[in-house]
Structures are given as structure tokens and as C-alpha cells.
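In response to reviewer comment 3 from the previous cycle, which asked for concrete evidence that the modeling workflow produces usable outputs, we include below a single protein chain processed end to end. The sequence was submitted unchanged, and the resulting C-alpha cells are shown without manual editing.
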Amino acid sequence: MGTDNIFFLEIIEWFDDTGKEIVHRIPEGGSGEIKYGAQLVVRESQAAVFFYNGKAYDAFPSGRHTLVTGNIPILTKVLSIPWGMKSPLKAEVYMIDMKTFTNFKWGTRDPVAFKDSEVGLIRLRAFGVFNIRVVQPVLFVNTLVGTQGVYTTEEIEEYLSNVIVSRFNDYLGEHLDSILNLPGKYDTIAEGLARKLQEDFSNYGLALSNLYINSITPPQDVQKAIDDKSKLGIFDDLNRLVQMKAALSLEKAAESQGGAATGVGMGMGFMMPAMFADAFKGGQAQAGGAPEAAPLCPDCKQEIPKESKFCPHCGHQVLVFQRCDKCGKNLPPNARFCPICGTCVEDKPQPKKCPHCGSENLPKSTYCNQCGGKLD
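The workflow returned the following C-alpha cells.
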């Protein structure tokens, strides 16, 4: 790529041989002296963010682009003598892979607290997979990548998994009263949780493509209680049947009661595996996915061309450099205060402290991950 030569212009491009790099900086060792007229080659599945003098200037779509800097071959080296032959006009390019990254794992490292209306306070384990892609490359670099030379899937997976677990706890507390009603609701919970997470992911320039729940598992004693409740329901129906038959014939009722005991044992043996199979199969991830939809304007919701920086329908700025943490509006590149709500850009939301157990939770959390109590 020739980013350290004196005479020749650079040709900047990037290939990812690992398939795990989301962002790659050029030059890898830090900022460089990219020259006036350098050629930047961006491929279809990529985007490039050009930083000059420490500021993000633009995001480039696929194609070949000519970079404009103040570094002139040979002349810049001569003028850089006071700085030890190093040009103060520093530039770097962050190459971003815009493909969909699949099979990210999420799950509860420790069981999360859930207040069940029938069972009481219990701790649940949940696991699943999700897919992400970068939709705002400048915002992604500014908020998560920072000055790292390489940013990989392993570095982001753990953080996003923690966010999902926190929002999962909130969603269950708001939409599920008892785990006894859980079977058959995996898809509904996954869809609602994905909608709840869209705002969190969009704050980092990411889109959550798909989210799947593989399992939600209560403790062994709670599972046994669910089994016992199912058995009690079956035996209650059996008792009513026996009483009805006893009114017709005492002798026939006695014979039916003996046969029923055998029938119940056989019925439970056949029914319980099917019941639990239906309860836990709903969250299995489906292979493949829907084709990628056309991008929409975040303001007017109209379809826009893939490489748009402004909406052709309403003029909304599509390319986001930074976003206000309070009102969520787009910020100009060098803004110190939000032009909409006046919040200082440097003021970041603080973690929510649980008033019951004192543990810290994500901003905007509704329920505590440790004790299940509602946060004020």
C-alpha cells in the first residue's frame, strides 16, 4: 500500500482473509502521511471512513476515490524538517466490512432474577444467537472502535451479549407474568426483544438483523414444580370422571378407577416428552434469513438509495457522525452541544443503580439483573 514512501502516491485497499475483522485501519501502526491524490479502492461489501488531522471527514461507498490532503510528495518532507521530518498533517483510513456477521452467541453467564407471579422469585438462564451489520460506519468508528487498528467480532460479541441479557430481563419483566405461560412464546419474545434492542444497537451505528432464542431454562426445582402442576391438573380431571361414574354404578366406578390408574401412568409416560419438546423447540434458530431490505430514511421511513448521505424525500441527514445520548438526534461533526436539546456532548448516561441490592445496570434498564427488583 506504500503509506510510508516519500515519492509515490498510495493505493489504499483492504482484504480480510480471516472473515472476523469488522474494522481495519490503514496504516495499521497509527496515522500516516497519506499524500494528495492517493487512490482509495472500496469494494462492494465495504465502506471507508477518512480521518484527516484527527477528524472524520467523510464515509466513502464502493468505488475508487481520490483523497485530498496537504501532503505533497518530497515538498512535505522538506517542510517537515522542524518536526523531525515527520509531517504534522496526519491521515488514516478506517476500512469497514458492511456484510452481515452471523452466529454471534448471547447468553446469561450468571442466572438473571425474574419475579414470577405464581412461582415467586426465580433465576433463569437463557441462550441464543444473533446477527449484526454496520449501517453507520462513521458513528461505529467514533463510538466503539476509537483508535484501535483492528476491531474484530470477538471484541464486540461479549459486550453486545451483555446488552441483550439486560434488555431480555427488562422485556420478560414487562411482558411475561409467569414462566408457566412460556411455551409457544419464544418467537414472540424474540421479536419483541429485537425491537427493544434496535435503539441500543443504533446508538453504535449497528443494526440487529436477526435474534433467536434457543432456550430459557428455570432451575431444576422449578422444572420439577412445573411437572408436578401438570400432574395435578391431570389427576383433578380424573377425580371428576371417577365421581361421575361412581354415581352411576359403584361397582363400575371401582373397575374404572383401577383401569384409570394404569391409563394415567401410560398417558403421562407418552405425554410429558411431547409437552417439553413443544415447550423448548420454539426458539431454535432457523437456517438462512430473509433477503436484505432496502434502507429506509430514519425520519420519513421512505426507501432511499444505498449510498445516500441525505434523504432525497425529506432532506434528513442519513450519514451519522455522532448522536446525542439524551434525545438521539444527529450531531454535526464538531458539535460540543446538541442543537436540539442543548445537552453537552461530553455528558454520557450513567449506569442505573438498583435501590434494593446496589448493583449497577445499563442506562434505561427497567429491572435489576441481580435481584429482579424494579428500578426507579
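DSSP finds six helices and 16 strands in the chain. We consider this sufficient to address the reviewer's concern, and the full set will be provided in the supplementary archive.
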